[in-house]
Amino acid sequence: MSQTQDFIRGLQLAIRKAELQEFWTDYSDDSRVSFEEVLIKYKDYYNGLDSEEKQLLLQSLFWEQVKTVGTPIIEDIPDNKSKVYFLYSKDKVKNSSEEPGKKRDLYLQGDFHGYGSTLKDEQSLGQLAGTDILFRSDTMDKEALVTYYFVQLEPSLGDKPATHFYGDIAYQPPSFFPVTLKEPPSDMPASKSKEEIAMVSNLFWGEDSVVVDEYCKFHKSYDQNSGFFCADSKKSVADLGFPIRMKGDNAFFDNFFASKVKSASLALASANNKVIDYPENREDLDKCSRSILLFAPEDKKAIENVVIIYDGRFYQLGNTQERLENVFEQNTAVIYVNPEKGIEEEAKRSGVQFDVTDSLPGMNERTVDLKHRVDEYAQFIHEELLPELVKRGFAIPDDPNKRVLVGSSLAGTASIYMGMKYPAWFGKVVAQSPSIANREKLEDFVTQEQKPPPPDLYLSCGQFECPEHARNQGLPFAKELATHFNIPLHINPYGHQMEGWSQELEKSFRTLGLVTTVSSSLEIEPQNVRTLVKQYQTYIDLNNQERDKQKSTDAKEDIRPDSSARTKKFD
């Protein structure tokens, strides 16, 4: 049965046991009913009860059944879409201090509905007349991966766009380049101070405002406030392979990452851009600038490709290493780099001055390597880390086409920059949902008269990273980059989230030629598969060499490519 059918049958049984009058007597499992119809039936039944005592009893039965089936309620509808229902009890919402006797308003926040705004039509939950039920429904692509939570805010903050709260940080310019405009557009809002941004962050992320959907079946391991689901009623997030963190498991992260350190081929760290041994305790690790985990083939000499992934911990929480072990041949080393607390102090000592946006959620220490000191980070990888691995016996390739940078958000933009600035070091880049917050690093490559050719670049972004959904500008920015660099853009049904990026990696590596697939329909002897793979890789290498020759030739020509001849390639 569907989730809606389970709910109806469960509620009918609970009502019968409570010895209330029968609910929906002519209901049949053979009839296709929506959860919206259930709410209408429930409203009429609830308001028809002859005492407040019975209504309170029914109310408790309703929410107990919601807990049983879990939220959100997901229904299949035509055209490969789903109808998704979000529910919350008005009785649990805090009272308004602005309007005594009333409740605060409740809004959805997330990568589908939007962060940092309170738009009535897109985010608010309405009340089912005469009941305590707050709800809203949305139509989504069936394959969508969605993150959400609720915020309860005073009425005066209602129906406001993100620019009202964040000012020019949330503003989408006519073009993302140049970064600094000589004459700001007339509709561009004023900048907010660091103190104002801190107040807004507390408004949308603070304990007084945030409401957790306690009935959601799955919450993110690294953000227990956020519910997470796949909009396909037949798929469970639990089946997607992500690590599960039980409620109240405060030791989850220590245990999870300790297991990763233990299973890694080598664990290292860095301090002052020098490689050091991995610290024995958490306190010493916090003093470091980066932690580094290497997963390599047992045969250290068999390494043909090296993949360098920034924000290593988040990618590991996205089940990335397990996915890659099922994808790669035993010839690829994967390096996970993660910033540690000590990197901010190192940056300050070197003269880095942080700006207002650096304090936004998800920024902080990440901005050192990815915004303020990107060149130093690239040099650290090429001149310190990779040579150290060679000293320790790992056959790290010198060929840039065998070196792949992977990054998302800030790291996505920074990876593009490093690939274009240092083509002799890094020949392939996977840039996922690149951020506008450090786009100034790309400005010279976009605006200069003679553009260098981009690296072998796989560019992707989430479908919801746009003003129509999340009120962020990731998708418009990615589209502009795709046009500037004349490359395809891969668009997927998710938002700005690790769970989507991790799943996309296999496709990106296949596109870049790092993963080869032999059709299962062909009957090939196992001993011949390796030969075919080697032959295919040789073919890829020859193509790369020809491409590099062409890049060198193009770079010598003092002719700017005709931008009008470029075509957008989006999928």
From TrEMBL:
Region (Disordered): 544-571
Pfam family name, one: Esterase
InterPro entries the record matches: AB_hydrolase_fold, Esterase-like, Ig-like_fold, Ig_E-set, Mycobacterial_A85_antigen
Protein name according to UniProt: Enterobactin/ferric enterobactin esterase
Protein's organism: Candidatus Berkiella aquae
